[in-house]
Write a structure and sequence with these properties.
Elements: H1 15-21, H2 24-27, H3 31-47, H4 53-72, H5 84-96, H6 109-145, E1 150-155, E2 158-164, H7 165-190, E3 192-193, H8 209-215, E4 220-221, H9 225-230, H10 233-259, E5 267-268, H11 287-310, H12 325-347, E6 350-351, H13 353-362, H14 367-376, H15 381-398, H16 407-411, H17 421-424, H18 427-432, H19 442-465
The structure holds arginine (ARG).
Length: 466
C-alpha cells in the first residue's frame, strides 16, 4: 500500500500525476523527525486512553525498529510511497498489523508535516549555530594574533586610513555575532509544537497537546490550529537569516579573493583549500571563496521562492506548501557547507603581514593623520586638508611617501611642520593613536577582543544546553 487515501477513489492515479504529486524523493530525509513525532503522538494517545497502553507500546516499539532499520541501511525508503508519512505508516502496519492502523487517530498529515519540518529545521538550525560558533572562534583567534598587523583600510576600494588586520576581521566578527543572535531569535519563535492541530480544526479526541509538545522538547503547543498547519514563517525567517549569513560570507570571500590576487598578495590560501587550472600551470585559485560567493545567490533564490509560494495562499493547508521543502533543504545544506568550509579555509590561510604593512605605508593612508598633525600645530582643519592634498600631489609626482620628504621640503607646504612630523605620520603611530571605542589602536582592540571573547564563551555555553 503506497497511498493512505484510496477509499473514495475508483481509479488508479495516473502515473504522471503520481510522479508530479509525490514528495518522497525529497521528504525522505524527514524520516527521523516523522518517527520521533509519531512516537510522541502514540505515547500521548495511550496516556489519554484513546488507544490502549498495549497498542501504544506496540506502535512505539514498531516505530523504534523502523528507525533502527532505516539508520542501519536494512530498510530503504522506497520511491513507491507518496511521502515519508505514508512510508512510515505503511511499514508500521506491515510490522505490527491492526495496532499500526490506530497511529493516525486524531492526526492529519497537515499537522504531521508541519511538525516534521519544524523538528528538522530546529535540529539543523542548532547545527548551523555550532558551525557559526566555530567560525566566530576562528575569527577571534586571528584577531588576537593580529592586533599589530597593520594594513590599509579602504573606502571605494581606495586606500583610506591605516588599520590592523584584527580590526578588519573584527568587523566580520560583529556581523556573524548579529547573525548568531538572529538564529537564536528564530529558534525561540519556531519552538512551538503544531502537533494535535489535525487537518485544520483540531479534533474531537481528547488529545493532550501539552504532553506531546513537552515530549518533543518544545516550549509549548501552538495556540491556533489553522495557523499551525499553514505557518511557514519560521522557514522564511530562517532562510532570511541564512541569506544574511551568506551575504556576510560573500563579502568576506570577495575581499579574500581580492587579497589573494597577484596585485594585492595580502594572503596565500592553503593548498588544501585551493585548486589549479587545467591549462595554466602557475594558477592557484581561491575556489572556496568563489563558490561561497556564487552560492549566496542560490540561497537568496531559495528565500524568494518560499516567499513567493506563500504569498497568495488562503488558509489553511494547500498543496503548494509541499514546495517549501526543496528550497528550505537546499538553503540549509548550502549555508551549512559554506559556513563550515569557510572556517576551514580561514584557519589555514597565511596573511602576508609584510605585504599588508608595505601597502599601508605606500598608499598615503597617513594623509588624515598628517592633516591632524597640522591642526594640533594650530592650522585650521580645512586649511590643513588643502595643504596635505597639495603635498600628496607633489609626492605622487615624485613617487614618494609623505615621510620620505625632508623637513625643508615639508616646510615649503607649511611652516607648521617640525621634526616630530615623522613620528606623527609613522604607520605605528597612525594606528596606535586610534583609540576611540571600536577603533584599531591595539590597546582598544585588546579591550574589544576581551568583550567579544566573553560574549562568545557565554553564547557557546548557551548553545550547548539548547
Ligand atoms: N507531502 C505533503 C507536504 O509536504 C504532506 C502533507 C500532505 N497533506 C495533504 N493534505 N495532502 O506538504
Amino acid at each position: 500500500m503506497a497511498q493512505l487515501w484510496g477509499g473514495r477513489f475508483t481509479k488508479q492515479t495516473d502515473e504522471a500525476v503520481k510522479a508530479f504529486n509525490d514528495s518522497i524523493g525529497f521528504d525522505k530525509r524527514l524520516y527521523r523527525e516523522d518517527i520521533e513525532g509519531s512516537i510522541a503522538h502514540a505515547g500521548m494517545l495511550g496516556a489519554q486512553g484513546i488507544i490502549t497502553p498495549q497498542e501504544a507500546d506496540l506502535v512505539i516499539s514498531g516505530l523504534g525498529k523502523i528507525l533502527a532499520d532505516v539508520e542501519s541501511g536494512e530498510l530503504t525508503i522506497g520511491s513507491e510511497y507518496e511521502d515519508i508519512h505514508s512510508f512510515v505508516e505503511a511499514n508500521l502496519i506491515e510490522r505490527i498489523g491492526d495496532a499500526g492502523k490506530k497511529l493516525h487517530t486524531g492526526r492529519s498529515r497537515n499537522d504531521q508535516v508541519a511538525l516534521d519540518m519544524k523538528l528538522y529545521t530546529r535540529r539543523k538550525t542548532r547545527e548551523i549555530r555550532e558551525h557559526l560558533c566555530t567560525l566566530l572562534e576562528t575569527i577571534l583567534g586571528l584577531m588576537e594574533e593580529n592586533t599589530d598587523t597593520y594594513m590599509p583600510g579602504f573606502t571605494h576600494l581606495q586606500k583610506a586610513q591605516p588599520t590592523s588586520l584584527a580590526h578588519h576581521l573584527g568587523a566580520y566578527f560583529e556581523m556573524f555575532k548579529r547573525d548568531a543572535g538572529r538564529l537564536d531569535d528564530c529558534l525561540e519563535r519556531m519552538n512551538y509544537c503544531p502537533l494535535g492541530s489535525g487537518a485544520l480544526a483540531g479534533t474531537t479526541y481528547p488529545l493532550d497537546r501539552y504532553m506531546t509538545a513537552e515530549k518533543l522538547g518544545f516550549a509549548g503547543p501552538t495556540l491556533n490550529s489553522m495557523d499551525s498547519v499553514s505557518d511557514r514563517d519560521y522557514l522564511i525567517e530562517l532562510l532570511s537569516d541564512l541569506s544574511l549569513i551568506m551575504m556576510h560570507l560573500s563579502r568576506f570571500s570577495e575581499e579574500l579573493i581580492t587579497w589573494n590576487s597577484n596585485e594585492y598578495r595580502f594572503v596565500e590560501m592553503d593548498d588544501a583549500f585551493s585548486t589549479g587550472s587545467s591549462i595554466m600551470p602557475q594558477k592557484k585559485n581561491p575556489d572556496i571563496c568563489e563558490l561561497v560567493r556564487g552560492k549566496t545567490g542560490r540561497v537568496y533564490g531559495d528565500l524568494m521562492s518560499l516567499l513567493t509560494t506563500m504569498k497568495g495562499l488562503p488558509l489553511a493547508y494547500n498543496k503548494d506548501m509541499q514546495e517549501d521543502k526543496e528550497p528550505a533543504f537546499d538553503a540549509i545544506d548550502t549555508a551549512e557547507a559554506c559556513i563550515s568550509l569557510f572556517s576551514g579555509m580561514l584557519s589555514t590561510i597565511t596573511f602576508r603581514k609584510d605585504v599588508m604593512r608595505l601597502s599601508a605605508v605606500r598608499g598615503f593612508t597617513n594623509a588624515t593623520d598628517a592633516a591632524d598633525y597640522l591642526v594640533v600645530k594650530g592650522v585650521p582643519f580645512r586649511d590643513a586638508h588643502g595643504i596635505i592634498g597639495r603635498l600628496v600631489l607633489h609626492c605622487i609626482d615624485e613617487n614618494k611617501s609623505i615621510e620620505d620628504l625632508s623637513l625643508s621640503e615639508l616646510k615649503q607646504f607649511s611652516p607648521a611642520f617640525e621634526e616630530d612630523i615623522y613620528e606623527a605620520v609613522s604607520l605605528r603611530t597612525c594606528v596606535e593613536k586610534r583609540l576611540t571605542l571600536g577603533a584599531p589602536g591595539s590597546d582598544m582592540m585588546k579591550t574589544v577582543i576581551g568583550k567579544e571573547k566573553e560574549w562568545l564563551e557565554g553564547w557557546h555555553r548557551s548553545i550547548k544546553v539548547s
